[in-house]
Amino acid sequence: MAPIYGRNAFGAIIMFDIASKSSFNSILEWKSKLTDEIPIVVVGNKCDLEDRREVSYEEAHNFCENNGFEYWECSAATGKNVPDSFNSLLLSCFNFRLQIEKNQPPNAILTEEKQGRACC
């Protein structure tokens, strides 16, 4: 699904299960399916299941920091940090888009020249 939706994306959330090391290990595979140079927020889901954790906060945070991703932990079950992680992505996308527009030449504004008509 990522190649279809990730083609013209301005940003992405890559989510993994903190209780599944294999889902964490596939983050870079998912990233490879996305357009280069877009903001990516990695979200470790199920932070409410601390007793089943296989990926430590430190491991995930360091991985994301080393790869240029922002990192959040959330719980879809309790709602913890869900809005914050999405808001973080939206802000990153907005800033990313502004940076793109700053680097583009300004649009030329074409105006029609009025032709004067000679009298008589």
From TrEMBL:
GO molecular function, one term: GTP binding
Keywords: Nucleotide-binding
One Pfam family per UniProt: Ras
Family matches, as InterPro entries: P-loop_NTPase, Small_GTPase
Domain of life assignment: Eukaryota
SUPFAM superfamilies reported in the protein's UniProt record: P-loop containing nucleoside triphosphate hydrolases
Keyword Transcription (UniProt): no
PANTHER family assigned to the protein according to its UniProt record, in alphabetical order: PTHR47978
Protein name (Swiss-Prot/TrEMBL): RAS, putative
